[in-house]
Amino acid sequence: MTKFFFGNWTTRIYLFAVAVAAVILIGGNLATGDHEPSFAGIYLIGLTAPVSVIFAPYFLLGEGWLAVAMLWLSVLAGLLLNTLLINTIVGEVGKLRTRRA
């Protein structure tokens, strides 16, 4: 499982960017005392697109605990799918490099 998430530099950079955006969102919510997702949630949606974009209209229109849960679940699903896609693409490029050498 560690190799899946931290197997290559591309995946590490992507996960770091998503983690920074999540920390900014949580930090902003804690600083203001408002527990509703703020504008920083748009960065998370953008970083974890296309999966999180499917749920974005509900997140942007809804209020309450369901909107918060939909945001974090869609971000998690997008993070996992994008990590899988990055690992697959980087793995295929690595296979091509070894064949040519």
Q: What's a concise summary of this model?
A:
The chain is mostly helical. Helices cover 83% and strands 0% of the residues.
Percent strand equals under 5%
What is the helical fraction, as a range of percent?
over 70%
Q: Alpha-carbon distance between the termini?
A: 29 Å
Q: Stretches where pLDDT falls below 50 for ≥5 residues? A: none
Global mean pLDDT: 80
Which structural class should the secondary elements be placed in?
A: mainly alpha
- Describe the global form: elongated
- Count of individual beta strands: 0
Radius of gyration: 16 Å
| Helix segment tally | 5
Order of helices and strands: HHHHH
Biggest beta-sheet profile:
none
Would you kindly provide a written description of the structure presented here, covering whatever features stand out?
The protein is mainly alpha-helical and 101 residues long. The protein is 83% helix and 0% strand. Helix 2 runs antiparallel to helix 3 (40-47), helix 3 (40-47) packs parallel to helix 5 (65-100) and helix 4 runs antiparallel to helix 5. The longest helix has 36 residues, at 65-100. The mean pLDDT is 80.
